[in-house]
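TA notes, week 10

Several of you asked for a full example with nothing omitted. So below is the full record: structure tokens for the whole chain, then the designed sequence directly under it. When grading your own attempts, check the secondary structure regions first.
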């Protein structure tokens, strides 16, 4: 299975409105350098994931990422944050 890459697989998961909204909070969903920082990526994944039966906090109001999208993001992390 090919490694998951930021440019081909992860960046396209974020809509332009999500990217714009999160920049106000200094979260750069479209910036590989920012997203490849393990602390930043973990925080983004936590915001995208449901917790204790509650919906994710990102994107505000949805549509929320499905299990396959969340798994792809996690695989990108496990693959070593490929560009």
């Amino acid at each position: 299975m090919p490694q998951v890459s930021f440019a081909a697989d992860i960046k396209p998961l974020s809509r332009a409105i999500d990217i714009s909204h999160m920049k106000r909070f200094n979260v750069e969903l479209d910036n590989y350098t920012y997203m490849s920082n393990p602390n930043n990526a973990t925080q983004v994944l936590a915001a995208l994931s449901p917790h204790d039966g509650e919906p994710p906090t990102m994107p505000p109001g949805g549509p929320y990422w499905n299990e396959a999208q969340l798994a792809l993001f996690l695989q990108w992390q496990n693959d070593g944050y490929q560009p």
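Residues 6-78 form one domain. Use that as a sanity check on your answer.
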